[in-house]
Amino acid sequence: MWLTFFTLTSHCMSKGVFLSVLASILFGALYYYASLLKPLSGEQIFGWRMLLTFPAMTAFLWLSKDWGLVSKLWGRLRARPLLLLALPVSSFLLAIQLWLFMWAPLHGKALDVSLGYFMLPLSMVLLGRVLYGERLSPLQTTAVALACVGVAHELWRVSSFSWASMLVCLGYPYYFVLRKKIQTDHLGGLWFDMLLMLPVALFFAIDLNAEFVQTYADHPSLYALVPLLGVISASALIAYIASSKLLPFGVFGLLGYVEPVLLVFVAIALGESIAAEQWMTYMPVWAAVLCLVIDGLRMTRARSGS
């Protein structure tokens, strides 16, 4: 009996790790893929991504029998109409991040956004300390201190910090906090966030001011490339969600660090580079992330041993 249990657990872990890494690779591919969709703008690419991903997300919820989460949230909305004021804010906060992810590779900000994703876990740690009184472990404290060194160096170097980096590392945490506050931090909440984006996504995708029909006539390859955008985006999202169900929370969180590493490689592939004077910004931040990885491994082993 115990042998069967451990065999099944090991199988789920292996499958979960594979799906998590696959999701990170697909998100990295999506980051690069935006550069192949020129002359479409970042807004148009974001629009098409949402329009094509939403049906796949809906189908996944049906097939995985998670549609009940949507129904329960709909019931809450009917009972508490004030939630209708909070959901658009939640959707907007997520939409900004998804737009930036598609916009950055086209405008030389891919490296800045990748730095923001490296700093995101650190800002989450700090926010947890401030808002929820969570205690920091010694390694977490060291990580925060190292990140502060990197940020301070960047402020000293250019008297500012990239708005793209700050939007990721500060914007995403408040999205998570809001979802936790209004109790929509589940797949049903994500579905509603995406649903509310659809009108804006349609407006951006069609973009009549950009001579929509002429653009596609001049670049017929877009008829194949745009649907493939939806395939990559939907596959990445489904792999990510599926892995989250198979993996322990700690392991799932640690594997999340794979994506920003891949985003750095994509940024370099797109022609961006880290200048010599920027290394004192990036190295402390990367060292901080390493501290969080080590701390996460330590806590995961402690839980598995208990």
Q: Name the helicity range.
A: over 70%
Strand content: under 5%
So how many helices?
A: 13
State the major sheet: none
Question: What is the SS-derived class?
Answer: mainly alpha
Number of strands: 0
Q: Report low-confidence residues grouped into runs of 5 or more.
A: 1-10
Rounded mean pLDDT is 85
Q: Outline, from the CA principal axes?
A: globular
Instruction: Tell me the distance between the termini.
Output: 20 Å
- Whole-angstrom Rg: 20 Å
Compressed to H and E, one letter per element, the order equals HHHHHHHHHHHHH
Secondary structure blueprint with pairings:
Elements: H1 2-33, H2 42-63, H3 67-79, H4 83-103, H5 110-132, H6 138-158, H7 163-181, H8 187-206, H9 212-218, H10 222-246, H11 249-255, H12 258-269, H13 279-305
Keywords:
disordered N terminus; mainly alpha; globular
Explain this structure:
With 306 residues, the protein is mainly α. It has 13 helices and no strands. It has helices at residues 2-33, 42-63, 67-79, 83-103, 110-132, 138-158, 163-181, 187-206, 212-218, 222-246, 249-255, 258-269, 279-305. The two termini are 20 Å apart. Mean pLDDT is 85; it is low at 1-10.
Summarize the structure.
The chain is mostly helical. 81% of the residues lie in helices and 0% in strands. Residues 1-10 have low confidence and may be disordered.
